[in-house]
Amino acid sequence: MHIFFSDLDNTLIYSYKHDIGPAKRCAEIYQGREISFMTEKTGQLLTQLKDLALIVPVTTRTIEQYARIDMGIAELPYALTCNGGILLADGKQDASWFHESQKLVSPCKSQLAHGEILMLRDKNRCMEVRNIQGLFLFTKSQKPLESIQYLKAALNSNLVNVFSNGIKIYIVPRPLNKGTAIQRFNKRFHPDYTIAAGDSEFDIPMLAAADLAFAPEQLKPRAGFQTDIKYISNSELFSDAMLMYIKSTLLAKHAAREQTGNTTETASFPD
Asked: Of 71, 116, 203, 228, which is least surrounded by CB within 10 A?
């Protein structure tokens, strides 16, 4: 079995603020507004990849935010939400996975509680502080760089990471990362080969844990791992170019299996 672990935002889908050309389809509606899109080419490639690999979205989005996504390829059997803290199987939360996640972050609980107080006091904060199922914290800042410095100075970096993504600010326990999430997933399903794609700092642990990884060129300076990684030029739309590479890689692997006489169906997935 081959698995393709993929981030969502700016990896497969894009905000309405991002120009991805005219050949696109709506991928997310919120409060009656179309807020995220994907290219028609990405939609077609995902449909083709479903026959070659198990596609598993891995996102920092909450369950509710993930549920708004419609990529036009029917519901995927699995998704890792909340930065990997929650596993959805056929749209339902896996209770044992969440229990394991709570155990993982338990040593960091005091830092999360302290971080929540700091976020509430931050003069640059411009949104309520959200505690996402006891797993991590999220808010927005008018001056994200100042907020990041303020939080990092007061928190234990051995226990929690502080991230910014635009004006969004996160405090995340170190054990709660996408790399750990896909390692946990692999222990359950024992894939032969894993591919990962992502565009941000959140995705680096996931890219490092895969057999083959794809990232945009701007993430290259942050890479310090041994994964076989392909960087997509900024002159290409990441989703389209990355999926084309993945399709050719998986087709080559299937062809190689046929040539060696191994007819095991690698695209058959667990129930």
From this structure: 228
Cβ distance 81 to 30 under 8 Å? no
3-state secondary structure of 37: strand
d(CA 202, CA 267): 28
At 52, give phi and psi (nearest 5°).
Answer: -110, -20
Find the largest Cα–Cα distance for the chain.
Answer: 65
CA dihedral sign of residues 79, 219, 159, 111: negative
| 11, 239 contact by CB (below 8 A) | yes
Q: Which residue has the tokens 């935002």?
A: 9
Residue 41: CB atoms within 10 Å:
18
**The whole model's pTM is what?**
0.92
**Residue 80 near residue 62 (C-beta atoms within 8 A):** no
Residue with tokens 């309405």: 16
- For the chain, the residue count is 271
pLDDT digits (tens, 9 = 90+) for 20-38: 999 999 999 999 999 999 9
* Torsion region of 85: left, alpha or beta (phi above 0 gives left; psi -120 to 50 gives alpha): alpha
Cα(129)–Cα(95) distance, integer angstroms: 25
pLDDT, tens only, 194-253 = 999 999 888 999 999 999 999 999 888 765 665 688 999 999 999 999 999 999 999 998
CA distance 215 to 229: 7
DSSP-assigned letter for residue 161? E
- Specify whether the CB–CB gap between 118 and 105 falls below 8 A: no
Q: What is the DSSP letter of 260?
A: T
